[in-house]
Amino acid sequence: MQPIPLYPILGGFCTGFLAVYLDVWAHYLMAFIVAAIVAQIGSLAFCFFKKHQTIGKLMNRHVFPEGLYDIVVWGLPMVPVTVFVLFLQTGMRRSKQMNYINKTMFTRKKLTISDLSILLIKDTIKCSQQNGVLFGQVRHLGT
Length: 143
Fold this sequence. Notes:
- It holds the Pfam family 7TM_GPCR_Sri.
- By secondary structure, the chain is mostly helical.
- It folds into 2 domains: 1-109, no CATH class; 112-143.
- Helix content is 71%, strand content 0%.
- It has helices spanning 17-21, 26-59, 66-75, 78-89, 94-104, 113-142.
- 2% of the residues are buried.
């Protein structure tokens, strides 16, 4: 029997070049994607900042000091690197994940299929009760 992963954990199945041929862990790939998105947003913000500075110099008002401009220029490339490193720190090795699952779930007792179905039914009832309350509020607000 295989353990069932719980939500809301980030996860994915990677089939790209790095994952298949170089065996790069999916967490590193997700960290890279998040850092790339942050870099794109930072580049866009820097373009607006530079445009604002150019227009401000032409109109002789609302110009940021040269020191602040230098801080932005030299500090902006560090933001994606920092995000990448911080995102990597949130990861947990596969061996630690399996040790945690084995320690907390399977040392108490052996779960059978009937135990899992009872847990699934209880979880389904709880979700349907919560959704009923939520949909009841939406229906009430709509009428």
